[in-house]
Structure formats: structure tokens, C-alpha cells
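Private note to self, pasted from the team thread so I don't lose it. C-alpha cells:
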């Protein structure tokens, strides 16, 4: 819809303005603009009704999970391009000097912050599976495949710790095929996991924060 498209455009504007998040709320608002709103639009294309707020929330969660994984993986590349999506408050908490977060002597602190991103990714990805269960089979399979591939990226960043940015983390073609096959089984069985935690950041809150920013 036009509302969601405008949210995505606003995300591009943030990048164009060299915007940087101060708080976690700012970070999640950015993720909503560039990925969460895209997830909502994709769900609408797949046939989810606008009034089905809960399923759209879960679609938003998938986009948020993707973006959090991307930020964790690309933090060094982003820094080289003059961008930083880690909240300034996190940098202060880690006692990192401005614009120094990717320096070799701060790699452990960077890994700690990436772990925070991945933990949030996991919560949103788990939530998205509930929404995926309500989609037609082919759509469900596609969504679950993408979810498995992106969460694998985040988990690899987490597993590598301080060495996660020595070489770019990616999933190979063989790994993608494996994730697609596992997603096929998951889509056939169609029993989404019970959530240990609901996401702290919900679509309505993020959209409201974006509107008031």
C-alpha cells in the first residue's frame, strides 16, 4: 500500500541523510523502514488481508530479522562506506570511541554487539514462522527458505565471534539447497514452534515511532 511504500522511501531518506541510530528504538525504527514494511507489502501480495493485523505483524518480523542479520554481517563494510547502524548508546556501553568500533582492538566488543543483534534476530524470526504457517504452501515454503538462509547468516556471525569479519559471511549454493529442503519439510508439516518470547518491538509501535520521529 502507499503507506507501506512511504515507510520504505523514508528508510532510503535516512541513509541519504547519513542518519545514525542513537538508541535501540532508533535502530528498530530503521529496520522497520527498510525491511519490516517490505515484509508487510510482500504478505499483502501473497494474499494476506489488511485487516489480518497479527499475520502482518509476523511478516514485519521476518523483515526485521533479515535486516538485523544483514547489519551484523555487514557492520565492517558499512563502516568503510561511512555508515553505522549500531546504536550510539551501545558503543558508549562498550566504551568505544566514536568511529572506532571496527578497529582490531575492538573486535571483541563488536562481536558482543553483533550477538545482541543476532539474539533479536532469533526472536523476530521465530515469530515470523507463526505467520508463515497461515500462508498457502508455495508461499510458506519460500518464506521459510528465506528465513532459514538469513538466520544461518546471523548464526554464523555469532559463531565466528571476533573473526566474523575477517571474510564476508555467506551461505553457499549447497547450503541454500539444504535450507530449501529443510524448509520444504517444515512447510509440509506446518507446525510452527511455540514462542519462548514475543518480540519486544511490534509493527504498530515501530510505525508509530516512525510517524512521530
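Design output:
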Amino acid at each position: 500500500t502507499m503507506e507501506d511504500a512511504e515507510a520504505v522511501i523514508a528508510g532510503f531518506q535516512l541513509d541519504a541523510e547519513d542518519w545514525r541510530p542513537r538508541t535501540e528504538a532508533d535502530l528498530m525504527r530503521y529496520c522497520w523502514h527498510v525491511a519490516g514494511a517490505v515484509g508487510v507489502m510482500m504478505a499483502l501480495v501473497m494474499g494476506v488481508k489488511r485487516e489480518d493485523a497479527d499475520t502482518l505483524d509476523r511478516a514485519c518480523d521476518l523483515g526485521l530479522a533479515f535486516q538485523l542479520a544483514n547489519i551484523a554481517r555487514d557492520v565492517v563494510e558499512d563502516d568503510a562506506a561511512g555508515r553505522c547502524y549500531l546504536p550510539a548508546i551501545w558503543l558508549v556501553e562498550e566504551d568505544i570511541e566514536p568511529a572506532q568500533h571496527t578497529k582490531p582492538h575492538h573486535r571483541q566488543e563488536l562481536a558482543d554487539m553483533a550477538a545482541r543483534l543476532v539474539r533479536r534476530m532469533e526472536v523476530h524470526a521465530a515469530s515470523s514462522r507463526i505467520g508463515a504457517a497461515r500462508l498457502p504452501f508455495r508461499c510458506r515454503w519460500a518464506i521459510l527458505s528465506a528465513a532459514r538462509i538469513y538466520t544461518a547468516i546471523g548464526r554464523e556471525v555469532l559463531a565466528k565471534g571476533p573473526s566474523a569479519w575477517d571474510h564476508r559471511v555467506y551461505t553457499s549454493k549447497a547450503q541454500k539447497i539444504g535450507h530449501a529442503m529443510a524448509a520444504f519439510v517444515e512447510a509440509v508439516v506446518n507446525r510452527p514452534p511455540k514462542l519462548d518470547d514475543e518480540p519486544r518491538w511490534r509493527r504498530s509501535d515501530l510505525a508509530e515511532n516512525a510517524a512521530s520521529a
